[in-house]
Amino acid sequence: MKINLNQCVFFIVSSSLLLTACGSGQSNQSQVEEKPIQDNVLYQVYYQAPNISNDITNDFFEITKYSIQNNEINFTKSHNQPLDQVILTETKILEKGTLQPNIIKRISSTQWTYERTPELKQNLSFELVKLDGEKVFDRLLPGYRENIDLTSHLDTRLDQDLIKFYQNYKDSVFPKDSYCYRLKETQWNQSFLESELVFSTFSFFDEQKQQILSRYNNLGEDKRYFKFLDTQWHGYNLISLDNLETGETQSLLGNRDNQAADTQFSSNLLWSVNKNLAYEKSHLYSGGDTPIDLWMMQNQRLKIAKLEKGCFAFNTQAINAVKKLNLINWKQGDSSDVGQFLGTRTWVSRISE
After folding, report:
1. Rounded CA gap, 139 and 23, in Å?
2. Of 16, 74, 18, which Cα lies nearest the Cα of 48?
3. pLDDT tens column, 46-100
4. Angle subtended by helix axes 291-309 and 273-282, to nearest 10
5. Distance between CA 351 and CA 333 in Å, rounded?
6. How far from the centroid of its chain's Cα atoms is residue 222's Cα?
7. Is residue 203 part of a domain?
8. Quick one: how far is CA 290 from the chain centroid?
9. Is the pLDDT of residue 221 over 80?
């Protein structure tokens, strides 16, 4: 059996973390800034945890500065970058080599647009959240204080920058006029898929379609949280099982010879941080006490904390306070890559048995 799992996660990364902060330090209610603010520069903070499988043996932090000119952020590396896969929409085929503008446009302080191509645009909705008096550690690493052991085996751990941050700066706070951009909603103007269009003679579309359909039919009461798409685009068979609350998808592409190809499907459904958060809280992992169960529970608690307190970017006042924590080696991030700005990470997993 082979099942292709395609998942595109917005700013939540499997082995790393796009660090941002928001919320009220004395309660769970965020203080939302109502007056319009037009920054000429934004900053993102990024934490990379050790990941032996990817040859990352030491953790590190990054700060990336993005300049805004004429209400646009241009990315020199990504601007007019050619597509390395074919993109299909319901009505159009974008071939490999098609140039991608990859421009972020600011419509207002809280409304932005990402233009990947003239046909594909994504709306991004934010809220501005005050950070005055908030603890920097808890806003950069939401959930870590409560869910990560930061006091044991200090000499043998690989995450030495994380430990150094906690030991020296766990009580440092943001100064007045610090705030961040919290991502509230995203939505593409139309659904699309990306694929190499390489079809395997050993992978049968009908067989895998039945497995995905069976999963959908066995969801029980949770079926209302999902949408099953079964259609044809440009002569190809397309199926996708979309979680309406989290934006996660499981999709598959087939040709006329019943062969299957890996594909990444992106829906035009609205993603909302509040809906995603409510779904996670109502679907808490309830496994046993094995190491994998404990790891799954910890990961979900961190995900919930990031959904509650995560933000997309900081203003200058907030980032200046972060830079003053000078025992940490704050590396300079790459501002020329739109992927790093959006925090998107996409992976394709193939499960075989």
Report:
1. 8
2. 16
3. 999 998 888 888 999 999 999 999 999 999 999 999 999 999 999 999 999 999 9
4. 150
5. 34
6. 23
7. no
8. 28
9. yes
The answer to whether 60 and 329 have CB atoms below 8 angstroms apart is yes
Q: What single-letter DSSP state applies at residue 222?
A: G
The whole-angstrom separation of Cα 337 and Cα 210 is 39
Please choose, from the candidates 311, 227, 217, 222, the residue with its C-alpha nearest in 3D space to the C-alpha of residue 269: 227
Residue 232 in any domain: the answer is no
Identify whether the C-beta of residue 153 lies closer than 8 Å to the C-beta of residue 143: no
Does residue 32 lie within any of the structural domains?
yes
Whether the predicted model's global pTM rises above the 0.70 cut: yes
Instruction: Look up residue 333 and give its DSSP letter.
Output: P
**Could you tell me which residues come within 8 angstroms of residue 12 by beta carbon, excluding any fewer than 6 positions away?**
18, 303, 306, 343
In whole angstroms, what separates CA 129 from the centre of its chain? Answer: 19
Print the domain residue range for 162: 12-190+268-340
- Cα angle for residues 23, 315, 327 (degrees, 5° grid): 85
Residue among 343, 319, 337 at smallest CA distance from 140: 319
Instruction: Report if residue 221 sits inside a domain.
Output: no
C-alpha distances in Å from residue 218, one per residue of 225, 280, 285: 13, 19, 18
Residue 283 in tokens: 């679907």
Give the tens place of pLDDT for each residue, 258-303.
999 999 999 999 999 999 999 999 999 998 899 999 999 999 999 9
Q: How many domains does the chain have?
A: 1
